[in-house]
Amino acid sequence: MPKLLLEHATVVTLNEEDEILPDASLAIDDGTLVGVGHIPEDFMADERYDLAGLVVMPGLYNAHTHAAMTFARGYAEDLPLDRWFNERIWRLESALSADMVYWGTLLAIIEMIRGGVVGFADHYFYMHEVAKAVQESGMRANLAWAVFGSEAQEVGISIPETISFVKQYDGAASGRLRALFGPHSPYQCPDTFLARTAAVAVRENIGIHIHAAETAEQVQTSLDTYDMSPIEFLAHRGLFETHTLVAHAIHANDVDLAILANKRVNVVVCPSTHMKYGMGVARVPEMVASGINVALGTDGAGSNTALNMWREMRLAVLMQRQAHGDAELLPGCAPLHMAGPHGAQALNFHSSGALIPDNTADLIVVDTSAPHFAPTHNLAASLVWCTEPADVRDVMVAGTWLMRDRNLLTVDESRVVKGFTAALESMLAAQQSQFRHYDD
Amino acid sequence: MPKLLLEHATVVTLNEEDEILPDASLAIDDGTLVGVGHIPEDFMADERYDLAGLVVMPGLYNAHTHAAMTFARGYAEDLPLDRWFNERIWRLESALSADMVYWGTLLAIIEMIRGGVVGFADHYFYMHEVAKAVQESGMRANLAWAVFGSEAQEVGISIPETISFVKQYDGAASGRLRALFGPHSPYQCPDTFLARTAAVAVRENIGIHIHAAETAEQVQTSLDTYDMSPIEFLAHRGLFETHTLVAHAIHANDVDLAILANKRVNVVVCPSTHMKYGMGVARVPEMVASGINVALGTDGAGSNTALNMWREMRLAVLMQRQAHGDAELLPGCAPLHMAGPHGAQALNFHSSGALIPDNTADLIVVDTSAPHFAPTHNLAASLVWCTEPADVRDVMVAGTWLMRDRNLLTVDESRVVKGFTAALESMLAAQQSQFRHYDD
């Protein structure tokens, strides 16, 4: 790989001191940052980039999504969560194909790259297709094959199959891919299945990505069934003994927070979904105070409608301030950390995130020269509150540019739109014929 | 003015039936819509525009802002409202100049046009400068000169001066300007001043734009002082007898809602500000149910940080669904109506808003072909949840294009940025010298 030198940028490091370096350089060798501000004397760049007047900051990590679900964007709006799923989404998903997952994921990847996302944690079906899309695009991703039960379903897979999926992809694509288990949730997976998953995960050192404590009803059902909250139950069944991502965790009680902190569980909140479906407010300030790594996710386009991490950053702040009537919650760079370094951590990429030496060169260039940024009294606030996806000029993952000057370099947009449109037409036709009788 | 024919567009009318017309035409004569869908047989277009594959919808009306305050963007973040004002904003505003208001407003106008805003209700100082900026830009606006007390202050004006300001501008710029009174609020204006303002407003048929019921403390103070809520007090002093815009109205009780409905007061909620400063949740669903016209505002960039009405639409929905745990609140086109036709109504432009015959041709063209819109299962949802300012391609006010293909036609962006930067430097220097002693 060529050695790269990015020069004269304003570098927002998101290091532990939140340092912002004016007119600074970044040296990149073999996909790794070898100099941030201070460039090693013997560093000989093959390519130099003058980024005067531009901001370089860590790329964003979308720590919980169902990328392929772009096919359901706007398909089930203004419905309570149960009707959203039962009346609309699962009926559409019953006609899901590998093809739809491949094209849907690529469409999501386009939207994410264009919005400054460098990595995502995906939780879905037909994950070989997702891996293929990720590899083609040059993105970073953490892949979980969603399983709803103890036995293989039409679109799920068995534990042995999951193990071979994980072994095939964990660490693949020069380390840009991680793979782990994806048991759906304590309410969708039987007790014994979860315990088996946990045992295998510990034995094989495989991570787990799971949903939990999304609604108050789920918590009540768990209490009624097990006399334990969903978080307590998962801990008790051993699900938190490896690298774990818990999506949502909205209705966590004090004991749950202590468990999550103690077990170093990564919690991913999805503000758009939580607000849009009136699911409740995750206890983010308390989680952060407990030392829990809290990251942000867009969730799928079927609920969120968009895959825009700038929105999620802002909503993460706004929903807490609304809920607590406190204008000082999650100030300054806090949301940038949640979307950046905390996200990398949640995705189990421990050498990604902040722009510090020895981390992977996952970064974005933001053009803050547009009038909607003027003036810049406070750069962190400008980035959080003013940036729209269109302001992201360039995106780099592990030293490779995925977008330059808003042009995608690894994905052919028109090819993807064409493939996506054809796959969606097939899925809608299949779904219609399947449910014709049912609707009569 | 040339007669215009816009052809082959998907027209989102926001009429009473929320009709969406595929492959439809719009005929515009002398700034007025003379045909929507059905084009009069004798209509001879001077200019024709093929808008195949594009969406035409009503422009957005920002119904409460302090446009010039772009100068304070990011200047006072992460502070409670009282400290935001007392420690930061008023100290900056103490050095305010006519020049700063002119350039700050033009900068705001650029951001607003680029985001699809066709009109705004402004509440600020040096309003001759704002009128000048609006006239140059071709926008529509409703201007209120903010007054804090009974006597003229350095940056306020007296009632007689306000009357001549209103007479000069109300109906000016071929009807694109309206002007009215801007007493700041019941908590910043003495009782007698408000009563005098109301008396003059009724006698001269002048509207009123005022802030009220922003915080629980303000309501308590009003109850302690007058034994009336701020809304009751304003009603009692006669402030609701002409066209009235009340900004915020967060802490309105049931009696207040009945008053606002009965007096046909226009309520403007500013979701970003309400959430960011933890001010509370306006009772929008109940207001709507009471028949109150509820519009949306960005408030100033000093609090919001942005002037993006797409965000305000989404936040208006999300904040209610979060507060009430109800995913069905403000569904479908509801937020589009709040930002569009309801905004025009609040600005006292009763022949603007929906795309229906005889209304002014205030419209925007949205390009929904980008991947972040695909697929379009539900166009209203796509517009609400997917649109970013950069997706607005063209903007027209009263039959005149203000933006075409993202190029501003009435405002010179580089000239404005230059003028703004110089004015801001002068203001910061003046403010620094003024407060040097104070800070010591």
What's the total number of strands of chain A?
A: 17
Give the overall shape of chain A: globular
What about the largest sheet of chain A?
A: 9 strands, mixed
Stretches of chain A where pLDDT falls below 50 for ≥5 residues?
A: none
Stated plainly, the CATH topology of the largest domain in chain A is called TIM Barrel
Task: Indicate the multimeric state.
Answer: homodimer
Which CATH architecture of the largest domain in chain A?
Alpha-Beta Barrel
Number of domain units of chain A: 2
Helix and strand content put the structural class of chain A at alpha/beta
- Which pair has the most extensive contact? A-B, 69 and 69 residues
Mean pLDDT of chain A: 95
Helix content of chain A: 25-40%
What is the straight-line distance between the termini of chain A? 60 Å
Number of helices of chain A: 16
The CATH class label of the largest domain in chain A is Alpha Beta
Can you tell me the CATH superfamily of the largest domain in chain A?
Metal-dependent hydrolases
